[in-house]
Amino acid sequence: MIALARHGRTAWNVDPARMQGRTDLPLDACGRAQAFRLAEEATAVGFAALWTSHLLRARETADAVAAHLGLAPHADERLAEADMGRWEGCLKSEIERDHPEGWRAYHERPESFYFPGGESLAGFAGRVVEALDEVASGPLPALVVCHGGTVRCAVATRRREGLAAYHERAVPNAELIWLDSSPASDAAGHPSVGRLG
């Protein structure tokens, strides 16, 4: 089994929230406390492997977990948040106000959405699935410390709706979300549904 955990809180996660994307922010004081609590929870599970996005907020969270588990975190850029292009650093409320068509497309048609000047959600999901396939081929259970978008991709691609379900799950900071390690499609080509805890 694979557990996913979004990084601890950063200053841009606090309302009014900004789009972080690849902007490399550290955890704030609350985020560091969240990372410590995640580490305590992870210790009780007994993970055999620890993976992380290469971005600072994820690595700081993974380092807190690593100190408890005695595991070296394996950093993988494929687990990073989406490249949000020109939206990075913008308030979500500003994007909704100034770019209403793009904001609607992001929420209503995620399977065909491209971040302006950034990557597509389909491309984002593809690299996340590729990374998780590698995680699943190694020691399990494994903990993957990543980002809200990364978690949403992992969950959505294991549902019949695919990326259309990208926005359907809230992803709190530094909480374990269990995901089965089966492929997104079964032998007949039907997407599988992840078991979430």
SS content category: alpha/beta
Write the CATH architecture name. Answer: 3-Layer(aba) Sandwich
Number of domains: 1
Q: Would you report the number of β strands?
A: 5
Distance between the termini: 11 Å
Count of alpha/pi helices:
6
Strand order of the largest sheet: 3-2-4-1-5
The general outline is globular
Low-confidence stretches: 181-197
SSE string, helices as H and strands as E: EHEHEHHHEHE
Q: What's the CATH class, please?
A: Alpha Beta
Please give a quick description of this structure.
The chain is α/β, with parallel strands linked by helices.
Structure description:
The protein has helices at residues 29-45, 56-69, 92-98, 100-108, 121-136, 148-156; strands at residues 2-6, 49-52, 74-75, 142-146, 176-179. Strand 2 (49-52), helix 2 (56-69) and strand 3 (74-75) form a beta-alpha-beta unit. It has one domain (2-179): Rossmann fold. It is globular and about 45 Å long. Strands 3-2-4-1-5 form a five-stranded mixed β-sheet, with helices on both faces. By secondary structure, the chain is α/β, with parallel strands linked by helices. The model is unreliable at 181-197 (pLDDT under 50). 37% of the residues lie in helices and 10% in strands.
Describe the secondary structure blueprint for this structure.
Layout: E1 2-6, H1 29-45, E2 49-52, H2 56-69, E3 74-75, H3 92-98, H4 100-108, H5 121-136, E4 142-146, H6 148-156, E5 176-179
Parallel strand pairs: 1-4, 2-3, 2-4
Antiparallel strand pairs: 1-5
